[in-house]
Amino acid sequence: SAINFLERLCLTWMFFFMMCVAEKTYKQRFLFAKLFSHITSARKARKYEIPHFRLKKVENIKIWLSLRSYLKRRGPQRSVDVVVSSVFLLALSIAFICCAQVLKGHKTFLSAAYNWEFLMWEAALLLFLLRLASLGSETNKKYSNISILLTEQINLYLKMEKKPNKKEQLSLVNNVLKLSTKLLKELDSPFRLYGLTMNPLIYNITRVVILSAVSGVISDLLGFNIRV
């Protein structure tokens, strides 16, 4: 029993240590995204002591897009995504087991000690996933903030009225901004769940299996069929 307890304790510590590393990486990504969103604002760039430039030239737009791509790829990517996917799969498996136990006999569900352990693990994993989902969602909002490009387009239109002699050059910059806006919309991954990078297989399993299990549990508890 002592050896079993120590093994479970060590495995639990290693697992939560990896989750803490993943959360630290997500916090770093959010910090980069936050500072990146302040580059085109003179007031915020001065406040955070970062470089500032406006998207009024094609060269500046190229730099802005290159910097965005570099910051999104900075830091560990695959290892962190593997950790997050593993946590999600574990939480999914525990939820499925709990749903099966409830369907088997919801009155005796809490009488077993291992079910309490399952519930504690599920609560801890869900809290961690909610934290990561919040950070990932905020990071995506910062990088996919189209309002920055729209604001620069409005500024270009105002400059065209003030400087009609530079209308051709400003029109070229405006067209590049429009293409950049379309590009940012196309780059959003379809397999994302509140900012978490999801494998297509995991994404489909989540939609089909867990929603069916939850639907069965709700139907069993309420006494009538509900399809989720």
Any chance you could write out the topology, listing elements then pairs?
Layout: H1 2-37, H2 42-48, H3 58-73, H4 78-105, H5 113-143, H6 147-162, H7 167-187, E1 192-193, E2 196-197, H8 200-222
Antiparallel strand pairs: 1-2
Helix pairs in contact: 1-3, 1-4, 1-5, 4-5, 4-8, 6-7
What features would you describe in this structure?
With 228 residues, the chain is an all-alpha fold. It has one domain. The protein contains 8 helices and 2 strands, in the order αααααααββα. A two-stranded antiparallel ribbon has the order 1-2. Helix 4 (78-105) packs across helix 5 and helix 4 (78-105) runs parallel beside helix 8.
Short description:
The protein has 228 residues and is mainly alpha-helical. The protein has helices at residues 2-37, 42-48, 58-73, 78-105, 113-143, 147-162, 167-187, 200-222, and strands spanning 192-193, 196-197.
- Roughly how much helix do the residues carry, as a percent range? over 70%
What is the H/E order? HHHHHHHEEH
Number of strands: 2
Could you tell me the strand content as a percent range? under 5%
Report the C-alpha radius of gyration, rounded: 24 Å
The gross shape turns out to be: elongated
Number of domains: 1
Number of helices: 8
Stretches with pLDDT under 50, minimum 5 residues: none
Quick check: average pLDDT? 79
Derived from helix and strand composition plus strand pairing, the structural class reads mainly alpha
